[in-house]
Amino acid sequence: MLSFSEFNYHFVDVSTSLGADIVALDNGSIIASINPKSRKKTKVIMSGVHGDERGGPLAILKYLQNKKLNTDNYQTIILPLINEDGWGKKDRHHTGIDLNRNFNSSGPSHVRQIIDYLSPKEIDLFVDLHEDIDEDGFVYKLSTDSHNFADQVASHIGCPTVVEDNHDQWGDSTEKFIRSLGCFKAVTTEAPGKVSPEEKINWNYKAFEFVAQL
Ligand SMILES: [Zn+2]
User: I want to staple 35 with a disulfide (CB 3.0 to 4.6 A). Which of 53, 71, 123, 127 is the partner?
Assistant: First the structure.
């Protein structure tokens, strides 16, 4: 099992080979920005918000090590593993805090750094990779969205969408923060919980692949 530092070593290695600008946050988490100057619009992929959900970070690493990222249309910002505390402990929380309910400027310093980093960007697309222990895999879709981005992601993965009228019960989620910046093509994916670690990686791989190929 990859430790947090081992994961970051490999992620920085492959991202650097793609020409990424690398930022290391206070907690050791990495932001990789690929094609940072030549494209105005940005696609952002986040993962590892919950430390016990390992499929997303590992899928991102696997994809970048094996398959091409499309850099023609977007600047790509990848935050593959932002919860160093939960990763080590195999815990959803970060020092007792659910980062997907407290993603605001009162959060841990690395969350504030992410907010400061992303706020000036012109973010066109956002995907946050999660897992749901009780479900078979789905993509959240907001009923108020006037686009079909969530359907496109779900179709590529081969899973249903779950429609919600709002995300109020999530409090200050990552998706709520991104939407506050004016990015409305924002989705949260939930990989199946009761499958093998390899199947979780494969599911997240498809989700990442969809964004990577745009
Ligand atoms: Zn989660």
Answer: 71
